[in-house]
Design goal:
By secondary structure, the protein is an alpha+beta fold. It is 39% helix and 20% strand. α13 packs across α15. The chain binds adenosine-5'-diphosphate (ADP) and magnesium ion (MG). Residues 23-27, 174-177, 216-218, 227, 230 line the site of adenosine-5'-diphosphate.
């Protein structure tokens, strides 16, 4: 049967798109960062020589039996808690049967109808608000190996199998079809990744395949309640590609319907070179996984006591941290969001803010001067030569009026270079702020003598010119004059 989906229809116009609404649900696989694999003692690592991180179990030798890694279960519970899920007291492992060269057993151990975590949600920050996206479930499973194809352009063709990843612990996180636009999908993924990183379960490095996403999308006329037929898009290896693929797919489906066709349920692949999605297999060719309970593993029981213990050990998650930063430190939403982009950055900020006692000025220094300097140096916040308390100390010196903002920047540059504290640098370089009245008067007398025209203007009523004279005095003192004292003394002299 020739399906209409294979018939070319033009992509929808903006006008056509406006008549439809997309419905999106995401399936995200996250590799858990435990030391060993889910059912064996093999190291759970990336980047090693092929087929070196394997036990007989990993390669599917007959007679081997899986032993569940308790650490993996704890991580899965943490995932569930981070996503506000209910944790099932009993969950069941199931066999998902399919054949593939990188799956030597011929089945994957997964969970099916009784997953470890279910019925959760996350609050996703969107422009001008928040949106709650439901989490259907987060279930545990083992990863498969990797097939590597080489030389297909030549006459010789080689395919290799690397089983290092076989049995790496995964959670699959399935969202409710609550997402409505490609931008919302992007925001959901960003928040999900952040929550998992804060929960300490995974680095979520997409380049290492630690986070992988499949996107399900359908469209329906605005106002219609019933969902349309969905397509599942695979092969999305960045959040940007998820967004681009969804935008393309929504336009394809609407275009198809508007041309009189019908969307068919199928799996599609995203081609990042052409920016298009192409059909991979239709529903008729969908796998029948013949799920059944895994006979080699007991039901997984999580006691109330253990669950309480894990709950108590959960760190503060990004949403809660943002809220606290706004409420306790009086930060703007935007600043709170920037500061919680990584746990390390938010920790840095908090230490610096506590030392400086001025959170708002501290935000400006952390997100401005510090991050700028770190970017230039190609360094991460964890590698910052200036420690959080050193930055806090610098900010407190500005706040106490001991150094001007301009001088602080000079001192900061030297702190970045040497890793020394602000007081140490000021001592060594004689960079103390000049607050001595006698010395300031000498500087001011000199400035006034050199700028008679401005002095006359001031005395003639154009008092705004004082700004220029203050600037000259600061320059003459190499930024070291106490600006407040300069202002006061100058005014006295001009009005004398
Ligand atoms: P399948 O059995 O095909 O894997 P599921 O019901 O398990 O489908 O859903 C998989 C994902 O697809 C979930 O994230 C879900 O929210 C999403 N989804 C389900 N139905 C639709 C739909 N009509 N349009 C878009 N996404 C959908
Ligand atoms: Mg699935």
């Amino acid at each position: 049967m020739e399906s209409m989906s294979t018939v070319m229809a033009p992509l929808a116009t903006a006008e056509q798109l406006a008549k439809y609404e997309a419905v999106i649900g995401l399936e995200v696989h996250v590799q858990l960062g435990t030391n060993s694999k889910i059912f064996s003692t093999a190291p759970n690592a990336f980047g090693e020589a092929p087929n070196t991180l394997v036990t007989p179990l990993c390669v599917g030798m007959p007679g081997t039996l899986p032993v569940l890694n308790k650490g993996v279960v704890e991580f899965a519970v943490r995932v569930g808690l981070a996503l506000n899920c209910e944790i099932r007291p009993v969950s069941i492992f199931a066999r998902k049967n399919y054949f593939y060269p990188d799956l030597p057993k011929g089945y994957q151990i997964s969970q099916y109808d009784q997953p470890t975590a279910e019925h959760g949600w996350i609050e996703v920050p969107l422009d001008g608000g928040q949106k709650r996206i439901g989490i259907t479930r987060a279930h545990l499973e083992e990863d498969a190996g990797k097939s590597i194809h080489e030389g297909f352009k030549d006459s010789s063709k080689y395919s290799y199998v690397d089983l290092n990843r076989c049995g790496a612990p995964l959670v699959e996180i399935v969202s409710e079809p609550d997402i409505r636009t490609a931008d919302e999908a992007y925001a959901y993924l960003t928040e999900l990744k952040l929550a998992l990183q804060f929960a300490g379960v995974s680095s979520c490095d997409m380049e290492k395949g630690q986070l992988r996403c499949d996107a399900n999308v359908s469209v329906r006329p605005v106002g219609q309640e019933k969902f349309g037929t969905k397509a599942e898009i695979k092969n999305l290896n960045s959040f940007r590609f998820v967004k681009l693929a969804l935008e393309y797919e929504i336009a394809r489906q609407v275009g198809l319907i508007e041309a009189g066709g019908q969307v068919v349920q199928e799996t599609r692949l995203y081609n990042s070179t052409t920016g298009e999605t192409v059909s991979m297999r239709s529903k008729e060719h969908a796998h029948d996984y013949r799920y059944f309970p895994e006979p080699d593993l007991l039901p997984l029981k999580i006691s109330k006591a253990w669950l309480d213990e894990i709950t108590a050990s959960m760190p503060e998650l990004p949403a809660a941290k943002r809220k606290r930063f706004v409420e306790d430190y009086g930060l703007r939403e935007y600043d709170a969001q920037v500061l919680t982009l990584t746990k390390e950055l938010s920790d840095y900020f908090e230490v610096a803010a506590q030392v400086s006692s001025n959170p708002k000025t501290t935000v400006n220094w952390v997100t401005g001067e510090l991050q700028g300097a770190l970017n230039t140096a190609g360094k991460d916040i964890t590698e910052s030569p200036v420690s959080a308390s050193q930055l806090g100390e610098l900010v407190s010196l500005i706040e106490k009026g001991e150094i001007s903002g301009k001088l602080a920047k000079e001192i900061f540059a030297k702190m970045m270079e040497t890793g020394h504290s602000a007081p140490a640098i000021m001592e060594r370089e004689g960079l103390k702020q000049i607050s001595d009245t006698g010395e300031l008067e000498r500087i001011l007398d000199d400035v006034l003598a050199k700028n008679p025209a401005q002095v006359e203007q001031y005395r003639g009523g154009k008092t705004a010119v004082i700004g220029f004279l203050v600037g000259q005095a600061m320059k003459a003192s190499r930024g070291q004059a106490n600006p407040q004292m300069v202002n006061e003394l100058l005014r006295k002299k001009l009005e004398a």
